[in-house]
Amino acid sequence: MIQYPAELPLPLQEGYGLSTVDPMRATQMVTGRTRYRVRHRYVPTEVRFNFNFSQAEAGLFEAWYARTINNGLEWFEIQLQTPAGFMTYQAHFKGMYQGPELTQITRWRYSAVVELKERPLIPAPWEQFPQYWLSKEIIDLAINREWPQA
């Protein structure tokens, strides 16, 4: 799998956002009730973000985009922050990035939208044990302090 270059900075927090396609379809019935059904099981998530690159980083990014991922056609792996945590996701550009825009003397701003291959969810079945999931940092700290050799 192609990797996002480790030498390049990750996306900025400003303008960073996720959006997911609604998987349900609603049909209004004659009785006034609404019937809901699943339209599709695969629910793509889009991530919008901005980059702020130095002159050298901008050149590397454009060359990587053009030649390594074939002008955005190939899937690649990138570390992103989502509600499920900071993890590596498989992503694909949803079109050409916007930019570059000169923001400082030698800093360039790019914006892009990528589609994630999998919806960013916490590992199954942690939603069945919310008290443990929400306390996982405390549990991890306690285990490492009490049983460091394990």
Describe the structure.
The mean pLDDT is 88. The chain starts with a strand and ends with a helix. Strands 1, 2, 5, 6, 7, 8 and 9 form a seven-stranded mixed β-sheet that branches. The chain has a two-stranded antiparallel ribbon with strand order 3-4. It is flat. It contains three helices and nine strands; from the N terminus they run E-E-E-E-E-H-E-E-E-E-H-H. The protein folds into two domains: 2-119, Beta Barrel (Elongation Factor Tu (Ef-tu), domain 3), CATH 2.40.30; 122-150, no CATH class. Helix content is 20%, strand content 38%.
* CA radius of gyration: 20 Å
Count every helix, treating DSSP H or I runs of 4 or more residues as helices: 3
- Round the mean pLDDT to the nearest integer and report it: 88
SS class: alpha+beta
Order of helices and strands: EEEEEHEEEEHH
Main beta-sheet strand count, sense and barrel state? 7 strands, mixed
Could you tell me the CATH topology label of the largest domain: Elongation Factor Tu (Ef-tu), domain 3
Q: What is the gist of this entry?
A:
With 150 residues, the protein is α+β, with helices and mostly antiparallel strands. It has 3 helices and 9 strands, in the order E-E-E-E-E-H-E-E-E-E-H-H. The chain has 2 domains: 118 residues, Elongation Factor Tu (Ef-tu), domain 3; 29 residues, no CATH class.
What attributes does this structure have?
two-stranded antiparallel sheet, 150 residues, 2 domains, 20% helix, alpha+beta, flat, Elongation Factor Tu (Ef-tu), domain 3
Chain-wise SSE layout:
Layout: E1 2-3, E2 17-20, E3 24-28, E4 34-38, E5 45-54, H1 55-68, E6 76-82, E7 85-93, E8 98-102, E9 107-116, H2 130-134, H3 136-146
Parallel strand pairs: 1-6
Antiparallel strand pairs: 2-5, 3-4, 5-9, 6-7, 7-9, 8-9
Protein name: Transposase
